[in-house]
Amino acid sequence: MFEQVDSYCERTDFTFWSEPLNAITNAAFLIAALVVFLILRREGRMDPGLGLSLAILTASGSGSFLFHTFATGWAGMADVIPILLYILVYLYHIATRLFGLRWWWGVAFMIGFIPYSAATATVIGAVTGPLNGSIGYIPVPIGLLIFAAILWRQRPEVARGFVIGVVILCASLFARTVDEAFCAAFPIGTHIFWHILNGIMLGWMILVMGRATERAPAA
Question: What is the pTM of this model?
Answer without folding.
Answer: 0.95
